Amino acid sequence: MLYALLFLVLGWLEVHGILAMLIIAVLAAEIVITLMDFVEEDMSRKLPASERINHTLLAINYGAILVLLLPVLIGWAAQPTGVELAYAGWLSVIAAAAAAGAALCGRRDYAASRRLSRMVCAPAASLIEKLPARQTVLVTGATGFIGSRLVAALGGAGHQVIALVRNPTKADMLLPPVTLITSLDQLPNDTRIDAIVNLAGEPIGNGLWTDAKRRKILDSRIGMTGAVIALIARLERKPAVLISGSAIGWYGLWQDKVLTESAKSHACFSHALCDAWESAALPAEAHGVRVVYLRIGLVIGTDGGLITRMLTPFEFGLGGPLGSGRQWMSWIERDDLIRLIAPVVAGADTAGPAKGTAQIPVTNFKFTAELGRRLRRPALFRISDALLRRVGGDFAGELLLGSQRVLPNKALSQGFVFRHETLRSAFEAIL
Q: Which segments within 74-198 are labelled E, that is strand?
């Protein structure tokens, strides 16, 4: 908001006397705030080299601006206090646009900070209460949106966790007690592992599906699952269960048809990916390991997943349905997904495909309307089907416009009770 003030004043006005001194004070305050921001970011997370370079360049640029601006402001400060209009043509127009953008971002950040202060995250340990005795669980993809919460839940409940992390710089986000490894080869053959939860894989929703991106998505899952099978083969004591990550994309694209575990599939990239991922885990059965394919839906939670990608347009009042809005979204709140994993590990009779979705799927129109209601924002800006397909290709056609109305029959038949049966209940907890 201070930047917005600076852009607006310096772009359109010439301020003299005490007012010029106030502008100098704001510039000085910005220096302090910026340095505090750099230090905080450096202490709280590992910045990539490119971001550190960017911070340095920003600091140099800001210093150059001060060198040019301070003599002018000091000259203005020596004059009698007053304000004069100083229109500078297109430079003033650019300054006004910058002021508007900075003010909007400031307003959005203020709303987000107020919402964060009201949010209370449930204790992770309570999510694994149905897992008996003390288990040793290997988790791949341990720093991901789902994996990090699973590790916290297992560790908090007193279980031993072996976490495979591909990027050691993200290991700080995992709270002890946890054993960190960067390769499965680091585990000796006599390691005792009771269960493996394999969640590792390149994110599918963070970029367009180019040929290179598709190969990366597929290879990351098949390669990691193959390494897990190789580990199982050499372990002297085999784990009881392998929960292999998958997705409801296995079923392909449908309209309004209700999909249960026994439903057939339609050919598309999502199906080919999930089918290959599940097939890669199948050889574990030959070693006497029970294999469960956890077909996960759209996961929503407080610090990642689908919601974080939708918040910015909705905060600005620019959210709305995608395409017709009639496509079905099979969602699940993240803590309910973690709670669902515990009985799968403990239940000796659970094998094959299992759904990781809530019991009441909703249409995209209902999802966006409920999100707008909870954020107190309109949800009227519909993005056309044609535009999404033209820009996003198969990525948009399958992830954004594809319809999958999935019901978790296996979990319900085994007596699992969701904490958040409805989307409204989940949003109340998340937002």
A: 82-85, 136-140, 160-164, 179-181, 195-198
